[in-house]
Design a protein that fits this description.
alpha+beta, 5-stranded mixed beta sheet, 13 helices, 15% strand
Length: 552
């Protein structure tokens, strides 16, 4: 019995040697386990001495295994019987494989991870270039500082235009209550109350504006932007903006500074007189009202006459500020877009190369480790899992994933290569869907007994006539049982294309099972490479899809 067990071990378990050197190592022990073993049973273990260990163990069959370091950090690899593998790993990041020899599977792993990591290296490099770009720093800083300043500047200008409207209101009050230059004593109290209300609003507008001129503008100008090489026009536009804003501010000061100072003095007097009861008689009210009239006549009319020019200047400032901000933001966006384009080109190249590497190694179990990196590439997933299932039909994980993608719903998901259909036409000749590669193909499941199918047929015929010369084909799959009914419907509906097939099993149709068809009409639109573009296109939705592909 001992001899038999010993011979069985020799015959069915062959030693594997794993020689590993660790860079940036902080581990002291490592264990080898099955990648799928929920119990995490240890197949072999080793101490790590001087950043190095050698592990030998018996492996019965090719499969995925895990080098399990401390803190649950794992390096997955595919082992074959008799492998002698020499590895250099980075202890700071176990996905980094600086060197490998003795294993095609681990070399495949290294090539693919190197490709994936190169994308991150490219991102980091481009980000570094962007962040250290003087132009990017300049325009980003400009936009971040200029936008709030410009918003506040235009807001303050709008407020002063509103203040000028208060002047219009005061002029209207004077015209109503003192048309001859003196306030009517019967209406003096009402005039004063209305005018004081308008003057307080005017004063408040100017107080906020004065704070802007005294504090915000000087602070902003202290960190003014120097012109940057190659953007002279932008610098000139910015300088023109600041000069226009300064001219506007100077005009406001000329129109309002003394005006508001006198308004403020008048309002102070009003408060004192009112609370002391010195505005209770008509004579005092007329006298105070006439003081208001004098200020309005001296200042408000001048402001009102300037309102149109102020509005025009304000609009110019807004337009210039908006243009400056747009230019700065566009400059930043263009720089980012330029770097994004470089990355996209590199990423597309890496994706194509990594995809081809997966195809070249599709029968290697290592490919299983990377399938999720290509989650949107249904065709690649199908190709790899089909190859693995053919090689490892009894492998549990392979079978689980293969069964998952091999359902009709997954087989016919957009992006997948359409499953092959090979059935007899009315003359008994086998026609294959794959023979139509190079054309845009509509796979149309129908039957002579299906009313909705027959009503849709004229539209399919029209599309075929319109786009056939541009490369449009129809592959009709009938769910008929009676051959004569099938042939008669083809003739009657004018289905002039040659690709008609059926196994005459009605709902037992093998083609329907392959495609998961449970109701008809049911269509699948394929591109020239045989990928499924869409499902269930009929009527206008089919017309729109074909128009996008072929044009009018």
């Amino acid at each position: 019995m001992f001899a038999i067990l010993w011979m069985t071990n020799i015959l069915f378990s062959q030693n594997v040697t794993i020689d590993v050197t660790l860079l940036h190592n902080n581990f002291t022990k490592v264990e080898l386990r099955s990648a799928y073993d929920d119990g995490r049973s240890v197949l072999a273990s080793s101490d790590i001495v001087n950043d190095h260990f050698v592990m030998k163990t018996a492996v019965k069959e090719e499969d995925l295994y895990a080098l399990d370091f401390q803190n649950k950090q794992i390096f997955l690899l595919c082992l074959h019987p008799n492998d002698v593998i020499k590895l250099t790993l980075d202890g700071a990041d176990l996905q980094v494989v600086p060197a490998v020899s003795g294993s095609e599977s681990v070399r495949f792993y290294k090539k693919l991870t190197d490709m994936f990591r190169s994308r991150q290296v490219m991102v980091d490099s481009l980000n570094n270039l962007l962040q250290n770009s003087p132009e990017h720093a300049y325009f980003t800083n400009f936009a971040n500082r200029f936008q709030p300043f410009n918003n506040y500047t235009t807001s303050m200008a709008d407020d002063m235009l509103s203040a000028s409207e208060r002047c219009d209101s005061l002029i209207a009050l004077v015209n109503a209550y003192a048309p001859k230059g003196s306030v009517d004593k019967k209406q003096a109290s009402l005039f004063i109350t209305s005018a004081v209300k308008e003057m307080k609003v005017l004063k408040n507008y100017y107080a906020t504006y004065s704070n802007h001129i005294a504090n915000v503008v000087p602070t902003y100008k202290k960190n003014n932007f120097e012109a940057i090489k190659g953007y002279d026009e932008f610098a000139l536009t910015y300088s023109s903006y600041m000069n226009t804003a300064d001219d506007f501010n100077a005009t406001i000061e000329t129109l309002f500074a003394n005006y508001v100072a006198k308004v403020q003095a008048l309002l102070d007097d009003y408060d004192n007189l009112y609370y002391d009861g010195k505005l209770d008689n008509a004579k005092a009210q007329v006298a105070f009202g006439n003081r208001i009239v004098a200020i309005v006549d001296e200042y408000a009319k001048r402001v009102s006459d300037s309102k149109e020019a102020l509005t025009a200047s304000n609009n110019i400032i807004k337009t210039m500020g908006s243009n400056l901000l747009n230019q700065a933001q566009t400059a930043v966006q263009n720089m980012v877009a330029g770097y994004q384009k470089q990355f996209d080109q590199y990423n597309n190249k890496v994706f194509a190369e990594s995809r081809q590497l997966m195809v070249d190694n599709k029968s290697d179990l290592t490919a299983m480790m990377f399938l999720d990196n290509f989650a949107q590439d249904k065709a690649l997933q199908t190709e790899v899992l089909t190859a693995l299932h053919e090689k490892y039909p009894n492998h549990k994980s392979v079978s689980e994933r293969w069964n998952k993608i091999n359902t009709p719903a997954n087989r016919t998901a957009p992006g997948n290569i359409a499953p092959e259909l090979a059935f007899k036409d009315p003359e008994g000749n086998v026609r294959k869907l794959s023979d139509l590669r190079g054309n845009v193909v509509l796979v149309d499941f129908w039957a002579s007994w299906c009313g909705p199918c027959r009503r849709e047929n004229p539209h399919v015929v029209a599309m075929y006539k319109k786009y056939h010369d541009k490369g449009f084909e129809v592959f009709s799959v009938s769910l008929d049982r009676d051959a004569s009914s099938w042939k008669a419907a083809i003739a009657k509906d004018g289905l002039s294309w040659p690709n008609h097939v059926s196994d005459l099993k009605q709902w037992g149709s093998e083609a329907a099972k392959i495609y998961g068809v449970s109701s008809i009409p049911c269509t699948f639109l394929l591109d020239r490479e045989g990928h499924i573009l869409a499902k269930g296109l009929r009527g206008e939705s089919l017309t729109d899809a074909l128009r996008q592909i072929f044009g009018e």
